Structures are given as structure tokens and as C-alpha cells.
Amino acid sequence: MSEFSITRATEADAPDLGIIGPAAYAAAYHDDWDDAVGFFHQLKTFGEHAMVATLARPEARVWIARQESAGIGFLTMFVGSREPINSRDGGAEIPRIYLLPGARRGGVGKKLLEAAEAQARAEGCTYVWLDVMEHAEWAIAAYQRWGFTDIGGKTFSGALRPGRSRAMRVMAKELG
Predict the structure, then answer these.
(1) Do residues 88 and 82 lie in contact, with contact meaning Cβ atoms separated by under 8 Å?
(2) Could you give the number of structural domains in the chain?
(3) pLDDT above 60 (res 160)
(4) Which is nearest to 72 in space by CA: 39, 43, 97?
(5) N or C: which end of the chain has fewer CB within 10 A?
(6) What span, in angstroms and rounded, lies between the C-alpha atoms of 54 and 38?
């Protein structure tokens, strides 16, 4: 993979974020859905308008990864968020780390996470947390490599294909 850059996203990046999100989610999780309408509504949560709303939130921090000026991935973080298992103060939630398929395994996700962790530390957060579908073993393995540990579970609120687990793992990483 050639050189890539990580920068804080602004509203000017919303069109690119609105392409990356639905495309990356569909590539990774399309097998989870057999309800086209439900899948459509899930994809809308990653679209340009949703990203503009995310960027406008005062607690939101968003980074975009670019290669040859094209958006290839992003990470969203909300500072001051309590994890849902123990409800600890001092956290930052990372609800989305999404990479286009060709950007995986090239260090992009790790660099996005490093940027978020540095920002979380600078803002006084003591840990970051995220949740991940239990059957997304490839994502869980990446988070474990990056220092996250499993702290409990919860249920995904969307309607998934019969036979797909709605279980999610909640993982946290101390920023010590």
C-alpha cells in the first residue's frame, strides 16, 4: 500500500466520509442482512448527512485517512462517553472505524486509532472503548492486537439475518 495521511475531518470531508462509511460497512457486514429496507436504513447512518450531523456534535472527533487524495477510511470518537458495562467516567467511545477493503492490513486502522488515542489523552480521557459484532472475528482480533480487552456484551439493535448473532462485544483500552 502506498503512502496515506491521517487528518482531522471537517465538514468539507463529509461527502467523502459519506461514501467511505456505507461502502466499508456494506463490504464488511452485507451478509448480516436479508432485509433490504433495514439494510438501507443502516447504511443511511453512515451517509453524508449523518456525517455532517456527527461532525457538528461538540463531543465528536473524526479523522479521515486519505491515499492519493481519496478517502480510504475514517474513525469517529465521542469524548466524555461512559462505556455501557461498568458506566465508568473518563472514557471516549470509538463507535466507528471503517476502512475500504483495499485499505485493510496496511496500518491505516492502527494510525487512525493512534490519532484518536492521542486526542483522548490530551482531553483527559483515561480509556477508549468500542463495541463490535461478536461474529466479526477479524475485527476483534485487530482490536486485541491494538491493546483492547473484552469487558462484556450487549445486543445489536438492528434486525439481522436469521441465524446471525445480535451479540456484541464491548472492548476497552486503558490509556495509561
Answers:
(1) yes
(2) 1
(3) no
(4) 97
(5) C
(6) 21
